[in-house]
Amino acid sequence: MKSKINVEGIVTLQIYDKDGNLKSETKGHNVITTAGLAQLALLAGDASAVPFTYLALGTDDTAVAATDTALGAEITDTGLARAAATISRITTTLTNDTLRATYTWTASGVKTIEECGLFNASSDGTMLGHKLTGSITTANTDQVELTYDIKFS
Predict the structure, then answer these.
(1) Distance (Å, rounded) from C-alpha 101 to C-alpha 84?
(2) DSSP sequence for 57-118
(3) What pLDDT digit, counting tens, does each position of 15-26 carry?
(4) What pLDDT digit, counting tens, does each position of 53-91 carry?
(5) How many Cα atoms sit within 13 Å of 6 on the Cβ side?
(6) How distant is the alpha carbon of residue 57 from its chain centre?
(7) How far apart are CA 41 and CA 89, in angstroms?
(8) Separation of alpha carbons 93 and 83, rounded Å
(9) pTM (2 decimals)?
(10) Which of 58, 118, 140, 145 gives 71 a disulfide partner, CB atoms 3.0 to 4.6 angstroms apart?
(11) Dist CA 45 CA 49 (whole Å)
């Protein structure tokens, strides 16, 4: 009997104004990278492997591909730099079958977000997933909330 493991990424990006009103929301599937899949295999059998716990935003709208190893233009300013996510497991279909990484940034200026990714390091590292978000422009003091779900089935 043959078994197959599927890895599916679902990303939700929400922008709230300073009063907590939802300004923008985008949700959809991402691309799981080949380097990310290799790192998942390492995590399954090597206790020293580094898990995916960092979220990043970027400004490049170039089409994503499974061979991507980094965001096209990662944001490092305006309060939107790569950050350590809050990590949990949630139940989507089976108990604890989904990794959830979440983070909320506070924008300190105007920036147009075009992409996001899930990484295993505070800089560089391996990117597990990459998603285009569409053009979403922040204003000073906006809250940018990214939720990255990785479902295993």
Answers:
(1) 9
(2) EE---SPP-TT--S-SSB--STT---EEPEEEEE-SSSTT-EEEEEEEEE-SS-EEEEEEEE
(3) 999 999 999 999
(4) 999 999 999 999 999 999 999 999 999 999 999 999 999
(5) 5
(6) 8
(7) 18
(8) 28
(9) 0.95
(10) 58
(11) 8
